[in-house]
């Protein structure tokens, strides 16, 4: 496998970015897991924009809402762990991008759109979810876990076995 080569500073910054985003995902997942009253229903009902009907409809089906809550919590935790530890980080990166795309489509930062849940600031088109999505895209294009991460142990062992 052709691995990208990085200067030390580039590798360091990319690994710090991967771990920081991983921490963010992991922490968000644990906060939801530890709160027995947490559910995505408020977020889904508060949806605006092009896909709001889809998200609001999801909130009306209790069984589906239970699945969404489970996938949201454990998706955040597993994505966060994958990014922080550099294990199966390609899958974690793409899964994180999909999750962030759902968040962005549910609550797009558009002019004149107000949400019941307060945000950290005033946005137009670009918000935290889009920036995290773009950051994960960078990490997908410049992977580091085969150099610094558990993927190095897993995939180097597989490559050695295949060469023998």
Question: What brief labels describe this structure?
Answer:
mainly alpha; globular
Structural overview:
This protein has one domain. The protein is mostly helical and 164 residues long. The model has no long low-confidence stretch (mean pLDDT 90). The radius of gyration is 18 Å and the shape is globular. It contains seven helices and no strands.
Brief sketch in words of this structure:
This protein is mostly helical and 164 residues long. 66% of the residues lie in helices and 0% in strands.
SSE class: mainly alpha
Number of structural units classed as domains: 1
Helix content: 55-70%
Number of E strands: 0
Give me the Rg, rounded. 18 Å
**Regions with little confidence, pLDDT below 50 for 5+ residues:** none
Q: Mean of the pLDDT scores?
A: 90
- Determine the strand fraction and express it as a percent band: under 5%
Order of helices and strands: HHHHHHH
Determine the N-to-C terminus distance: 15 Å
**Count of DSSP-assigned helices:** 7
Characterize the largest beta sheet: strand count, sense, and whether it forms a barrel.
none
The general outline is globular
């Amino acid at each position: 496998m052709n691995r990208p080569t990085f200067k030390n500073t580039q590798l360091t910054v990319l690994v710090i970015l991967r771990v920081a985003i991983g921490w963010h995902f992991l922490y968000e997942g644990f906060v939801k897991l530890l709160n027995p009253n947490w559910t995505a229903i408020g977020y889904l009902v508060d949806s605006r924009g092009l896909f709001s009907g889809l998200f609001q409809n999801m909130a009306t089906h209790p069984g589906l809402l239970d699945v969404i809550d489970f996938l949201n919590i454990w998706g955040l935790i597993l994505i966060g762990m994958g990014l922080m530890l550099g294990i199966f980080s390609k899958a974690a990166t793409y899964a994180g991008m999909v999750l962030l795309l759902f968040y962005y489509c549910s609550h797009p930062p558009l002019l004149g759109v107000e949400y019941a849940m307060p945000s950290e600031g005033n946005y137009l088109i670009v918000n935290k979810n889009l920036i995290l999505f773009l950051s994960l895209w960078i990490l997908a294009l410049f992977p580091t876990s085969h150099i610094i991460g558990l993927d190095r142990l897993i995939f180097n062992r597989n490559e050695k076995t295949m060469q023998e």
